[in-house]
Amino acid sequence: MGLGWVVTLQNNSFSILGNDRLDKDNSNSALFAEYLALKKGMLEYVRAEGQGPLVVMGDSQTVIYQLRGIYPVMNDDIWNIYRDIVAIIREYELDVHFRWVPRAQNQQADRLSKTKGKVRILYPDDREFLISLEDAPVSGNLRQKIARMNSIPFPANSMFKGLHTASRDILSDKGLFELQAMAGDKAVRMVAEAFPGKKERSKHYQAQALRWMLRGLAMDLAIHKMRFDILNNKKQGSNSSADKTKNRNSRSKKKVKASGAKYYLNRRTYAF
C-alpha cells in the first residue's frame, strides 16, 4: 500500500515531495495510509521551518472531516495517529486549515503514492558538493550568498535571482569539456540528465550548472539555479512581447486601477 504527500512553499517554486509504502497488514487500511501520509507530510513541513498559515488539502473526506471535528474517530489505530497529528499542531503552534479536494485536484500526491521508488528529500545535511566553499574561486558578497543558500533547505526565488557574478571569473571562460574534466563523472551525469541534448543551448546550460558547482554551490542547488534562470528568461521574453502589445493599445484604452489581492508570503499548502 502506497502513500504520498506534497508540501508547496508559496514564496518560492519548491515542492517537498514524499512517498512511502506500507507492508500488507490487517491494521494497515486505506484510511490509516491517508493519516500516515498526513503525519509524514506535516513533519516535513515542520522540518522545512514552515511559518504558516498551513492549508492541508486531502482527497479523503473522512480524514478531513475527522480533523475538523465533524466526524468522530472510532478506530484505535487511527486514534493513535490522530493524537500524534494533534500533538504536532500544538507543539509547533501551527495555524492549520483542513480542506477536502476531489482526487482529480490531488493528482501529484496520488501519483507519488503509486510510485515504487522512494522520493529523496534533500536538506542541507544531505547535500553534496564538488568543492568546499573555502577552496572555491569566489570571494566577498558572492561567497556569502552561496554559503547562505547552501545552509537553507529551500532557498527562495529571490535568492536564485540575486545569485550572479559581479564580473567574469576564472570559470567564465572555460569550455564545457574543461569544466567536465574538473567536475568529474557524477556531476557530468547530473547536468546531462537535467539538461539533455547535444545542441549548443543544452551544452550552455550544462556548462553553467557545472560552473556554479565549481564555485561551491551545492550540486542540487546548481541544477535548480539553472532551471530558475531558464524559466526566468522565458518569462522576461514573454513579458517583453506583452509590453509591446500593451504599449500599442494603451492610447486607446482607459486606465483602470488594479486592486491587489491579499496573500501570505509564508503561506504553505500541503496535500496528501
Write up this protein.
The structure is a single chain. Strand 1 and strand 2 form a beta hairpin. The chain folds into two domains: 2-113, Ribonuclease H-like superfamily/Ribonuclease H (Nucleotidyltransferase, domain 5, 2-Layer Sandwich); 124-233, no CATH class. It has a five-stranded mixed beta sheet with strand order 2-1-5-3-4, with helices on both faces. The chain has helices spanning 30-47, 61-67, 76-91, 107-113, 140-150, 157-161, 176-183, 185-194, 200-214, 219-249, and strands at 2-9, 15-21, 54-58, 96-100, 268-271. Mean pLDDT is 82; it is low at 253-267. It has 272 residues and is of the alpha/beta class.
Largest β sheet strand count, sense and barrel closure: 5 strands, mixed
Q: Which bin fits the share of residues in helices? A: 40-55%
The overall pLDDT, averaged over residues, is 82
Beta-strand residue percentage: 5-15%
Q: Give the number of DSSP strands.
A: 5
Task: Please state the structural category.
Answer: alpha/beta
Are there runs of 5+ residues with pLDDT below 50, and where? 253-267
Q: Count helical runs.
A: 10
Q: Any idea what the radius of gyration is?
A: 23 Å
- Multimeric state: single chain
CATH class descriptor name of the largest domain: Alpha Beta
SSE string, helices as H and strands as E: EEHEHHEHHHHHHHE
Tell me the number of structural domains.
Answer: 2
| Measured distance between first and last alpha carbons | 14 Å
- CATH fold-type name of the largest domain: Nucleotidyltransferase, domain 5
Inertia-based shape: elongated
CATH superfamily of the largest domain: Ribonuclease H-like superfamily/Ribonuclease H
- Major sheet: order of its strands? 2-1-5-3-4
CATH architectural type of the largest domain: 2-Layer Sandwich
